[in-house]
Design a protein that fits this description.
It is a single chain. By secondary structure, the protein is mainly alpha-helical. It has 21 helices and three strands. It has helices spanning 3-18, 45-48, 52-58, 68-78, 80-91, 96-120, 128-136, 146-158, 168-179, 187-205, 265-275, 280-292, 308-318, 320-325, 336-361, 366-377, 381-391, 397-401, 404-418, 421-428, 440-445, and strands spanning 222-227, 234-238, 253-258. The protein has a three-stranded mixed beta sheet with strand order 1-3-2. Helix 1 (3-18) runs parallel beside helix 6 and helix 5 runs antiparallel to helix 6 (96-120). It starts with a helix and ends with a helix. The model has no long low-confidence stretch (mean pLDDT 95).
């Protein structure tokens, strides 16, 4: 590791540890901000410090049972502001694209650190607008669900689900879901079939536009694991630490899915394309391969939530089903059910953004937000409760991550409409350099 790599490792894992994350945990129940560590480099002091274990066990700065003396020891010994400043300083000697990416990473880490200090009572409140801009590259704004909701209503009517009787559109959506529900007890088998389909589609409509070296990279080396009573809907855990006899990566991951989810099969198809192929698992596997071949820097190995890169990754993942089918619009997908499933999934991500805005931008009550999400965004009762509660009111995720899904989705969709696939797809998947939701424009200009 050079000095820049050292600063990236210390800053990312230091902020991650402050919030209770454990990047070496194989489960999403233990991970938090840092999404990966697959470089084979030794873990930095930010992870191994004597106070780090206590922070992880306590659930970080927002958890219970945190010893103030231990947190003071951690903050005093590590000097995380200096590590973040070091990223900025060392990045000045890199190429313009990498320099801009690292500047955005440093900005996001700075805000996450300040949010942690705010929670601890050691810093001023972080303005909501600043938190959203640090992760998405633009100011917060309300969602606009009407056109998606109207299209769902049109497709449901066409499929024989009346929206003019009973509970109206929401009742029709609930009925449609019940008729197509995925049995979570069989999620491994159902998931394997969906993964095989989307891997085949990706080989047809994605791979030909990428460098030939990526053709040998497994796009979907993943295992589905149902878990009960999780506070999240699902967690893709990219591990990437298994090696073949020749020391090449196996690109392995797991996906833990909340066994309480009420999901239709078309929504599940969108989930698989989002989380696995050609979404998150594929994106991370390609970046690991680029790192191994010296085409990406160390920062590509310790990918981080609440950053502008994470917003881009969510955008890729939400457009993944369109990428797999080789189309740019939802109404170009092959059947009405699949279109409904994708629209409902995107409405759920619009609901995440709405929950963030109403909670932190307008200080609305959870009960009001829950009703709004269920009524206007057609989410299930379970999702409305989680998004307005555990997710929406979290001091970090509610202010920095919930807006990322919608912001990333709209940006990637616009880029795919404006650029041919042979230009935009290599840029999105890091083949022109690791990029985020802002620096992707620089990559496309080169």
């Amino acid at each position: 590791m050079n000095q820049l790599d050292h600063f990236v490792a210390e800053a990312v894992l230091g902020v991650d540890t402050l919030w209770g994350g454990d990047v070496m945990c194989a489960s999403g129940t233990g991970r938090f901000i840092a999404d990966s560590w697959f470089s084979d480099e030794p873990l930095p002091r930010a992870y191994t410090h004597k106070a780090a274990h206590h922070l992880r066990q306590a659930g970080g700065v927002s958890g219970k049972g945190l010893d103030p003396d231990i947190i003071d020891s951690y903050l005093g010994d590590l000097n995380l502001p200096a590590a973040i400043a070091g990223i900025r300083a060392e990045s000045l000697s890199t190429d313009p694209l990498r320099r801009a990416y690292l500047a955005g990473l440093a900005d996001s880490l700075q805000v996450m650190l300040e949010l942690a200090l705010e929670v601890l009572g050691k810093g001023d409140p972080v303005p909501y607008e600043r938190a959203v801009e640090a992760s998405t590259g633009k100011p917060p704004e309300l969602s606009r669900p009407v056109s998606k909701r109207d299209r769902v209503a049109e497709l449901l009517e066409h499929g024989g689900y009346s929206i003019s009787t009973g509970d109206g559109l929401l009742g029709a959506v609930d009925a449609w879901r019940r008729d197509r529900v995925v049995p979570m007890a069989s999620v491994r088998g159902v998931g394997a079939a969906a993964i095989a389909l989307f891997d085949l589609l990706s080989a047809r409509n994605l791979q030909p536009h990428l460098p030939h070296e990526l053709a040998a990279v497994p796009r979907a080396n993943i295992e589905f694991l149902p878990i009960k009573d999780a506070w999240f809907s699902g967690s893709m855990n990219y591990l990437g630490r298994a090696r073949n006899p020749d020391r090449s990566p196996q690109y392995e991951a797991t996906y833990e899915i909340n066994a309480s989810l009420q999901m239709s099969y078309p929504e599940f198809e969108q989930l698989v394309s989002h989380e696995v192929v050609p979404g998150h698992v594929t994106t991370f596997a390609y970046l690991q391969n680029l790192y191994v071949r010296g085409k990406a820097g160390f920062e590509a190995t310790v990918l981080t939530m609440n950053t502008r890169a994470a917003t881009l990754f969510e955008g890729i993942a939400n457009n993944a089903i369109l990428i797999a089918h080789g189309v740019t619009e939802i109404d170009q997908l092959p059947d009405d059910d699949l279109q409904i499933g994708v629209l409902l999934a995107l409405l759920q991500d619009d609901a995440k953004n709405q929950s963030s805005y109403l909670t932190w931008g307008e200080n609305r009550e959870q009960s009001e937000i829950k009703t709004t999400l269920r009524r206007d965004f057609l989410v299930t009762e379970e999702r409305a409760d989680k998004l307005s509660g555990a997710w929406g009111r979290h001091p970090l995720m509610g202010r920095m991550y919930l807006s990322a899904y919608r912001a990333g989705t709209e940006k990637v969709a616009d880029l795919r409409r404006a650029h041919p696939p042979q230009s935009v797809l290599p840029a999105l998947f890091g083949c022109k350099g690791l990029v985020d939701i802002v620096t992707i424009d620089l990559a496309l200009q080169s």
